[in-house]
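user: Here is a favour to ask of a fellow structure person. I have my own habits and do not want them to colour yours. Could you put it straight underneath, so I can go through it closely?

assistant:
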Amino acid sequence: MKLRAPAPKLGYYRVIGSVVDSKPQLPELHRVTYTVWDDGLSDGTAELICQNEIGGTEQRKVSMPWNMEFKVAPGTFLYLSAQKQQESGIVTAAITIDGHMVKRAESDSPFGIAAVSGHVP
């Protein structure tokens, strides 16, 4: 016969005569910015693939420079790739968290792709 511990109850618990809220605390959100830019020698457009703030994958064609900002919880996976739309020039992709650039990549290859990824600390 297996004994199982009772499941914790949500609500309020009395601790030495005072009431303590047992509801979980929400995590502190971090501000994430995806940025893509070129060196001015390309046609100024890029094809992007990125992980959005709710975990979905988006694909879009954008004019550079481009950025997208959102807030997410610690541990969230981040991904951004940018492919330039011609042979010449340089494309750069970067991820910034709370104002600090944490990832950066560039490509000068014909129709090159710059990709960055990581997790929010």
Notes: The mean pLDDT is 88.
